[in-house]
Amino acid sequence: MSGKRNSMIKIGIVVGIAAIMASAGIVQANPGGWGGEPCSKHERNHDREFGRKLGLTDAQKAQAKAIFQGNRDQVKPLFTSLRTEEKNLQGLIHADTLDEAAIRAETAKVAGIQADLNVNRAKVEAQFRAVLTPAQVVLLKAMPEKCHKRGGPPPAPEE
To answer: Is residue 156 part of a domain?
Structure first.
């Protein structure tokens, strides 16, 4: 009985971890903040306000826009792949029969794509910070903006 219970606990843990990772991927896969099109007029206005708060010059705005637009081509296939692998993972989790090895393998694929996106995010943020003055970097780090909380600056402000 104890061995059966331990197996059920392990299965529950695996399913829980997979669900958490899938949820994290959905949050992370919002392309509006990292290379996709802005989600709404509100987000575009947010981007303008972000630029005003940082006091970006026209040259900085142009550089930032080039950085974020250039990144779109790199992250788009990653987001597509992430969505596909998350669907595959959900299918395995909700399958009629449990295939622990397949769930683990698919979870590893999702985690790998998320790692690639996080590395990309860090690189893009570093490129964006390089455009800023030291005072603007201090302001950026102090900003409690939702996009900044997600792990980096929002897309370049639009004029």
So the answer is: no
More confident residue, 141 or 157: 141
CA dist list (Å): 67 to 39, 127, 152: 19, 7, 13
How far is residue 147's CA from residue 93's CA, in Å, rounded to a whole number?
Answer: 31
Range of the domain at 67: 2-149
Asked whether residue 159 is domain-assigned, the answer is no
| Other CB atoms within 10 A of residue 73 CB | 9
Cα gap 39→80, rounded to integer Å: 17
79 occurs within a structural domain: yes
Q: How many domains does the chain have?
A: 1
Six token digits for residue 23: 């949820």
Tokens representing 60 are 């900085």
Answer with the residue of higher pLDDT: 141 or 84: 84
Residue 22 forms part of a structural domain = yes
pTM for the full predicted model: 0.61
**Cβ contacts of 109-116, under 8 Å, gap ≥ 24:** 109/85, 110/21, 110/22, 110/25, 110/82, 110/85, 110/86, 111/21, 113/25, 113/78, 113/81, 113/82, 113/85, 114/21, 114/24, 114/25, 114/28, 114/82, 116/78
CATH number for the domain that contains residue 46: 1.20.120.1490
